[in-house]
TrEMBL record:
Identification of the protein by name: Acyl-CoA dehydrogenase family member 11
Swiss-Prot/TrEMBL cofactor(s): FAD
Domain Acyl-CoA oxidase/dehydrogenase middle: 127-205
Single GO MF annotation: acyl-CoA dehydrogenase activity
Keywords annotated in UniProt: FAD, Flavoprotein, Oxidoreductase
Keyword Oxidoreductase: yes
Ranges of residues in domain Acyl-CoA dehydrogenase/oxidase C-terminal: 234-381
Species of provenance: Pseudomonas reidholzensis
Family per record: Belongs to the acyl-CoA dehydrogenase family.
Gene Ontology biological-process annotations: fatty acid beta-oxidation using acyl-CoA dehydrogenase
E.C. number(s) listed in UniProt: 1.3.99.-
Gene Ontology CC annotations of this record: cytoplasm
InterPro entries noted in UniProt: Acyl-CoA_dehydrogenase (IPR050741), Acyl-CoA_Oxase/DH_mid-dom (IPR006091), Acyl-CoA_Oxase/DH_mid-dom_sf (IPR046373), AcylCo_DH-like_C (IPR036250), AcylCo_DH/oxidase_C (IPR009075), AcylCoA_DH/ox_N_sf (IPR037069), AcylCoA_DH/oxidase_NM_dom_sf (IPR009100)
Length: 391
């Protein structure tokens, strides 16, 4: 990232941070939540209008359509993450941010105009239909187990199957559906809602930052025009990798910001709360916990910057994003846990966002592939590289 790009990203990040701290944070007590305690679309739309007025809506994509570099994006997305509502307000949240990235990279002119434009404008939410129910033997961390099928029917495709944990499906206007054809995996852009896409249920989950929750969905003879296929039949797995490598890193960026804020709150608490005749911060156990948080947060920042630099270089970045996903999610879990512990009973209540950050970070260790799958992928790469070196 050259000096001009860095300065641009830093200037955007400063505006975003000011907006999140001054405008978004007060909304954390807003009662507009659904029955799963997720923000309602009415709340999201109001926040996005405030972001539009402040000039920080979709801030990682410039007015001319260019994306900031991944390193620049890291600076900006971390600031949106200072509140669980920040990514929603600034339109940098999952799954929309990853879907925008994918469409921007490989979408046709028609798909960009029809589906990408409303996402960039913050006027629509989207969902990514890939994961399938375990009881069906469907795809989870192993996409090769895909059970959802698509078949040609004249100029259309018919899609049938079930999907699970589809973030934001309830209330979304745009969907990216992954299915398998004779040629291989395919991706399609669809308008939502559609009567052929039925939400079976939205299970209550540990996390609650994403509108629409994580739905179980049935696709029953979903008809999609051929021109709404992303690329060509059989290229779906390749496009999934285009999306997932930076998307995993984006999760790291946003939740790094959330843990920065949680640590600020825990630090303030430790410097005000008295126990056994002195401030908590003066007790070695508390002081050392906060010191460890500083060390871990710096390590997370450096890991994100390193992985972002690899992606900016044009390398595929699959192994690097897996390393970052594991290291950052596991390390931030420790940071969030210490914040709760420092605050004691106060850290367990909804009176501050520390409790929510703890829950969200726990879910982050599962999003876009659990820790164990990424370690397994890296282990296979180690064996492959070693075997190649011996040949």
């Amino acid at each position: 990232m050259n000096v001009d790009d860095l300065q641009t990203a830093m200037a955007i990040a400063e505006r975003v941070e000011q907006f999140v701290r001054e405008v978004v944070v007060p909304y954390e007590k807003d009662p507009r939540r659904d029955h799963h305690d997720c923000p309602t679309d009415a709340l999201v739309l109001e926040l996005r209008e405030r972001a539009r007025e402040a000039g920080v809506l979709t801030p990682h994509i410039l007015a001319d359509g260019r994306h900031l570099s991944q390193r620049g994006t890291a600076l900006v997305l971390a600031r949106t993450g200072l509140s669980p509502l920040g990514p929603l307000a600034c339109n940098t949240c999952a799954p929309d941010e990853g879907n925008m990235y994918l469409l921007g990279k490989v979408g046709s002119a028609f798909l960009k105009e029809r589906f990408l434009a409303p996402l960039l404008a913050g006027k629509a939410r989207s969902a990514f239909f890939m994961t399938e129910p375990a009881e069906d033997g469907g795809a989870g961390s192993d996409p090769s187990m895909m059970q959802t099928t698509c078949q040609r029917d004249g100029d259309d495709w018919l899609i049938n199957g079930r999907k699970a944990f589809i973030t934001g499906a309830e209330g979304a206007q745009i969907g990216i559906v992954m299915a398998k054809a004779q040629e291989g995996a395919c991706m399609f852009l669809v308008d939502l809602p559609d009567p052929a896409i039925r939400i079976e249920r939205v299970p209550r989950t540990l996390d609650s930052s994403m509108p629409g929750g994580h739905a179980i969905v049935t696709l029953d003879n979903l008809r999609v025009p051929s021109r709404q296929m992303l690329g060509n039949a059989g290229e779906g797995f390749g496009y999934a990798q285009v999306r997932l490598a930076p998307a995993r890193l984006s999760h790291c960026m946003r939740w790094y910001g959330a843990c920065l804020r949680a640590n600020e709150i825990a630090t303030a608490y430790a410097n005000r709360r008295m126990a056994f005749g002195k401030l908590l911060i003066d007790h070695e156990g508390t002081g050392f916990s906060l010191a460890e948080n500083l060390i871990d947060l710096k390590q997370v920042e450096l890991m994100i910057d390193w992985c972002a630099g690899v992606l900016d270089s044009g390398a595929p970045g699959g192994a690097e994003s897996s390393m970052a996903k594991v290291a950052v999610s596991e390390t931030l879990m420790k940071v969030a846990d210490r914040c709760v512990q420092v605050m004691g009973g106060s850290g367990l209540t909804e009176d501050s966002i520390v409790e929510q950050v703890y829950r969200e970070i726990r879910a982050f260790r599962i999003y876009d592939g659990p820790t164990e799958v990424h370690k397994w992928s890296l282990a296979k790469k180690i064996k492959r590289d070693w075997t190649r070196a011996q040949a």
